[in-house]
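S.,

Sequence below, as promised.
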Amino acid sequence: MTSALRSPASRPVVPTAVPLGDAVAERAAVYAARMNAGDFSVALRAGRLAKPDYVAFLALMYPLVVGFNRALIRSISKVDHVRRSSFVRVLAKQLEEEQVHNQLWRDTLEAFGVDHEALYDDLEAYLAGFDCAELDRLTESVLSAVTRGDVDDDDGAGSIFPNAPFPDAVLALYHQLWIGASRDDIGYWEHFAGQAAIEMIIFDVVSTSILPGICGDPALDLGRASTAWWREHGEAPGEENLASEEKRHLELSRIALNRSGLDAATRSRVLHRAESVMRLFAATLLCQPLAAPSDALAKFLR
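The prediction came back faster than expected:
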């Protein structure tokens, strides 16, 4: 089965009168809706997702958790720390929060008996087998396949990254975030918009599908350690006021983009890169295997 992630056009079509942050938020809402309508999210909300499949999802997404944080650390160096010192302070606070959030995901993995150190060792060892040019090429191939809709849901290990321990879309987005954070020819706002878009999508999907699906399910809700990351990034049913800090953070990101003062050409590049990031992020969930690759994950279970 394939998942079509085509957008109405190869590049986002947003009227130039729309402020940049609002434009990114609009596109994020589109991709969040697709992810909420996907097989994985529907099964989770309906209480039909088996525990091994959920644990596989947590493990297979771990590279994105650490990859987001890795890219955030590197990207801050792109900001003028003299002229934009107040913004650097905001980013430093976000980084401190992300360090905590990374540990919350590791706590979740531990709650389900997953060895996150072994997961990370495998990620590092696998990626060390490629040079930067090869990772660029593979990432672009995955992005092209996702754009065409040629991504196989049943191929949990991926078919573009050879013999990969993680899905193609996960590995491609991991590298795509690093490209935006580290390349001198990519401006800071191009990277920031993609990370902000991911966070906007996460809040929507967590509030709409993840928390409603796991809360109260004795197989998936093992207490605070297993739900804390989700509760930091979305609103559980009946707990709409507990995620006010995350909503404030999302609003600040939108405002920062609105006030970025970019010219038309730079704005177009920002939207194009953000669209690529959103397309890959959507694929990481839409192409999540509903039959857990138990053999591949067995070595990570304590």
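The longest helix spans residues 85-111.

Coffee later?
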